[in-house]
Amino acid sequence: MDTIFYIVYTSIYLILLFIGIGLANKHGWADPANVLLAVLVGLIYDNSILAVGRYVGEGELLESLNLARYLLHAFLTPLLVIFAWSTLKKADCKWAEWTITKVAFFLLTFALIGIELVGEVADISLEANWDYGVLSYQNTAASDGPPIMILGVTTVLLLTSFIIWRKQGWSFFLIGTLLMITGSTVTIPFPTNALTNLFELILLVSLLATKAFQDNKIH
Predict the structure, then answer these.
(1) What is the pTM of this model?
(2) CA of 125: how far to CAs of 70, 139, 140, 146, in Å?
(3) DSSP secondary structure code for residue 191 in this structure
């Protein structure tokens, strides 16, 4: 059953990617918010590998493909911090224009990448795992503590989305972030591991919609 979910997620992410490319072509590729495209590519890869794992089968190939999932997650997810900074600039938050603010957001992005690489990827140990018809390789050496990188990114998105709502009256960003937080923290009694990915998808839809909203206001 979960395999179908991941196929659907991959298809929707492909649609979002094409929409994002269309926005970039229309409003400019120099926009820092276009880092969202890299995040979408990473999620397309992540969900597609989960979808095809059972067909590839256990072995070095699938293990390597799953290792790339962890690496992409570490390098690409923190880019959402830069996306958040871009939305603040577009909302005419004057302090977001300050050099020190820009440097702080970029340093935080690099710090979160480093934290994820050191804490989760450096000592990674992958083991084949079957769950709800999906074959993947999971990190058996994952830290028992809270996911610092995810907590950092989520905190930035939550604070930023609240500011965007107050400054521009745009609530979709905030709603998407709150739904993702809720989906990640509340246990839903449904026989699947794909619900977390669903809430990630909802978040990315809200982020792309936010970019489209702000681009149209500017232009």
Answers:
(1) 0.95
(2) 11, 5, 6, 18
(3) S
